[in-house]
Amino acid sequence: MKTWQRGLLGLCALLALFGGAAYAQAPGAPPVEFPYTGNRTAVWIVAQLHILFAAFILGAPIFVVISEWLGYRKQDPRYDRLAKEVMKVTVILYSMTALTGGLFIFVLLATYPQFTTWLINHFFLLFAVIYPLLFIGETILLYMYFYSWDAWKGNKKARHIALGVVLNLMGTITLFVIDGPTSFMNTPVKAEGVSPAEFLATASLWDKIYNYSWMPMNLHRLVGNVTFGGFITGLVAAYMYMASKKEEDRAYYDWMGFVGNLIGVGALLFLPFMGYLLAYELCDYDASICPYMMADQLSMFFEMQGAMVGLLFLASNYYIWLSMKRIEGVERVRMTVFAPMVMIAIPLVMGKAWDMFPVPDPKSLLFLLPLIGLLLLGKFVPWTVSSRTVIKVGFLMVIIGDAIWLTPHGFVPTGAKLVADLELPSDWNFLALMPAKNAAAFTLVFVTVVNYIIYNRAINQGTIVWGKIDFVSQFVLVFLAFTSIWTMGLMGAVRSLLRKYFHTYNLLPDFTPESFTPTLSYSAWWITAITVAFYVVVSFAIFVTLRPTEAKAHAPEGSPAPAGAK
Amino acid sequence: MGNVIKKVVVGLIVGGALLGITRALDFPTVFQLMFFAYALLGTAVFLLLDAPSLKPVGGVKAVGALVVFYVVLCVVYIAGASLWPQYDPEDEKGKIEKILKPKRAATELGKAEELIARAKALDEQAKALAARIKALGGDQASASQAAGGPGTPPATTGAASGDLLKIGEDQWQLQECYNCHKLKGEGGKKRGPELDNIGNLLTVDDIKQKILDPKSWMAEGFEKEYEKGKMPDKYKDLMEEKDVVALASWLVTFKNTSVNTPKPIKKK
After folding, report:
1. What distances in angstroms separate CA B94 from CA A390, A506, B100, one per listed residue?
2. d(Cα B229, Cα B237) in Å, to the nearest integer?
3. CA A510: distance to chain centroid?
4. How many angstroms separate the CA atoms of B204 and B252, rounded?
5. Residue A148 needs a FRET pair 20 to 30 A away by CA distance; which of A240, B84, B188, B199 works?
6. How many domains does chain A fold into?
7. Maximum pairwise Cα distance, chain B
8. Is position A371 within any domain?
9. How many angstroms away from the CA of A354 is the closest CA of chain B?
10. Do A490 and A304 form a contact (C-beta atoms < 8 A)?
């Protein structure tokens, strides 16, 4: 990106920020009315787009630095090339983050001027000083990191990696800071016996930031961003694999897709538990949020989430399966017969554990001891099964896990409309309760981990042939990226809707006629539209940044620099 | 091909078995179908595992395949989301309007809007009167006014006890108390005590105190819920005094001794 383009984008962002602030000062400015979408959906679209870009630019640099470090450690130029190519896309999307961020402020101020001014007043220091400084600092670091890539190689590589680490620290702090007002809107500070408005009047900025859902949201978003970044890297690899004409490029992008998927899935394994933690804190903050979320207005949103997460796990395991198929000598890989037995036992054992310990408790880990014992026994008992059998049993358990996650208490939009014809029989109601859902999530995670262990054994015992993967795998990578973005959009909507008819829960009501819970179908239309819009921009960014590299493959600055080269 | 047929047959057998078992266990039809659908999903996955490799395509063909793939994903996700039972926002709109109306009226914007609305109404009345005077003459217009024409202010009535109980019942619905408390056999998720006999255990003032300060009373057997603060401490901010009184007055009418409403213990 040229300097004047960056300058223009920066100017737009500043205009949006200060123009917005100036607009907010206009006394009694009436809110604008967006045609067709309405104000709330307009804010939703811009906010979600901004979050998607922001999630990528915060998540991608985390594994970019790790990849660069791995390249340095292993002296494998592929890691360095991966890191640099993802960084190129990140730089373009960074500009989009600033642009949509500015647009978000404009739209928010134009549509909800009173609320926006109120929120800015409560977090004035954060919005006026801390956040802009962090954003500017991150911008400087990001461009320094990117533009010093070729200059700081060889014996200066460690310095470059250190810069990347600082960039990530700055990014993480920025995320945590902006999560303050966001989480505040869901769970504003409160104290027993004092009205929220009175307590707010005496609360410090730190009190407001350090609210109930702040840290769970930080952790959820941090892990979510890495997942998202990993799957987008997979998308980049899939596009480039499809566009590659040379075998060596195909081999490289096949490898890149695998690494992207590995990062995405690796972080995805933690995501259900981070989500559980966030939901737990929200319910702890106000018990009425729980039924609204799980049993009433938003219950079907969670059904859809179950379906999407199930698809994500199925697809990521299918990708491992396809990766295994191109390993020569994979048929020699065997595993103890107890491994599939443990897989089958996992949902039952973990369901019982969660039933007895609904609140996370170290004692609940005792339930895992017999299973670990069985796996250890496998070291001494020579009964083995083929890796294919283990993976197929794993798929069966993923489907069973998905089924448990998906089974609702009743096929009704709210508990109030529950009738016997649509309700799970009482003896089987445990399938719809949290212990069963958690056990299902644990099963999905466990099977995926076992599959990666098998994969690791396969590449140690066999020979991996990069570039020869089944072509359908590229569609799996595209699918994973699309589905993860869609799921982010869905859960983002859920988190915002949890505020019910408030801008800030229980504090500032939303008096507009749009402050109701929309249908899942309506939401799905907009989530899809937002996902497609994001995809178009990302696809364009990949096209403009990585296509020229291929053309200049032999130019010195475009070639992958060996990590140790001087 | 033989392998495909074998898998489809196995899938259908498993699906049929699930269908039969769920039917025998008296699962509602929709759940029976759902379990059958799980078997079909499993069949599709196992078919996919051993499907022949896809030949690589590039250029325009690859772009075309991607576009088609995206269109399929969009359609499937929108259709999938639309197949689940849909919440009707109309169920909520009326409730929200009722809850927010007094709050809105209390704001500066609300006051200004009320003044504008009154001014508009007066303006319309004046226009209507002017039109009548013009069409009928001054005497007839005055007679119409005396007989209760459009300019007559609405009659005001005091809130009778029946009204108070109606408001109380409305508040039960508006504040969604049924989410945690069972009453008349409806609602409740075991988070809070069943309230059918509360009238024999607490007075209006006691119930009012509990609503405004959830830590003031604890139901026997709900120690964990009490300690965790399961009952939200927000109603003193969300509800007006008269609404709390109405809700308490309505609740105190429930004196069904056949229901085991747990004994309340005074804490404050």
Report:
1. 55, 19, 10
2. 17
3. 29
4. 6
5. A240
6. 1
7. 97
8. yes
9. 18
10. yes
Q: Which residue has the higher pLDDT, A462 or A551?
A: A462
Record: contact B77-A242, CB cut-off 8 A: no
> Least CA distance to A402: which residue of chain B?
B38
- Tens digit of each residue's pLDDT (9 = 90 or more) over B185-208: 887 767 789 999 999 999 999 999
Residue A251 CA to residue A234 CA, distance in Å, equals 14
Element (H, E) at A44: helix A39-74
Structure tokens at B142: 């005055």
Separation CA B222–CA A72 (nearest Å) = 59
Considering only residues 336 to 395 of chain A, which have any Cβ-Cβ distance to chain B shorter than 8 Å? 392, 395
With tokens 């570039």, the residue in question is A467
Tokens, residue B101: 């109306």
Q: SS3 sequence, A141-166?
A: HHHHHHHCCCCCCHHHHHHHHHHHHH
Q: Domain ranges in chain B? A: 1-54, 100-136, 161-266
Contacts of A396 in chain B (CB under 8 A): 42
Coil/strand/helix, residue A93 = helix
Does residue A415 fall inside a structural domain?
Answer: yes
- This prediction has a pTM of 0.85
Q: Would you state the pLDDT for residue A544?
A: 87
The CA-based angle A433-A437-A443, given to 5 degrees, is 150
Nearest to A500 by CA among A305, A198, A291, A195: A291
Angle at B151 (CA atoms; ends B129, B124), nearest 5 degrees? 55
DSSP B183: B
Of B28, B55, B238, the CB nearest to A471: B55
Counting one residue from A and one from B, how many pairs have CB atoms under 8 Å apart?
Answer: 185
**Considering only A47-56, B77-86, B224-233, which range has the smallest mean pLDDT?**
B224-233
Whether residues A423 and B28 touch (CB distance < 8 A) is answered with: yes
Q: Which CATH superfamily is domain B161-266 in?
A: Cytochrome c-like domain (1.10.760.10)
Tell whether A80 is covered by a domain: no
Which positions ≥6 away from A156 have C-beta within 8 Å?
A: none
Closest residue to A519, CB basis, from B34, B87, B110? B87
Mutate one of A399, A433, A451 to test the B interface: name it (highest B CB count within 10 A).
Answer: A399
CB B207 within 8 A of CB B252: yes
Domain containing A342 equals: 327-464
pLDDT single digits (tens) A122-141: 999 999 999 999 999 999 99
- How far is the alpha carbon of A34 from chain B, nearest alpha carbon, in Å? 20
The answer as to whether A402 is a domain residue is yes
Please answer yes or no on whether B78 and A486 come within 8 Å at the CB atom.
no
B229 and A192: CB-CB below 8 Å?
Answer: yes
Asked if A321 reaches chain B (Cβ–Cβ under 8 Å), the answer is yes
Q: Model confidence over B86-129: pLDDT tens digits?
A: 999 988 888 888 888 887 887 766 666 667 777 777 778 878 87
Distance CA A405, CA A422 (A): 18
To the nearest whole Å, the CA of B58 is away from the closest chain A CA by 6
**Helix (H) or strand (E) run with residue B217 in it:** strand B217-219
Q: Is residue A547 over pLDDT 80?
A: no
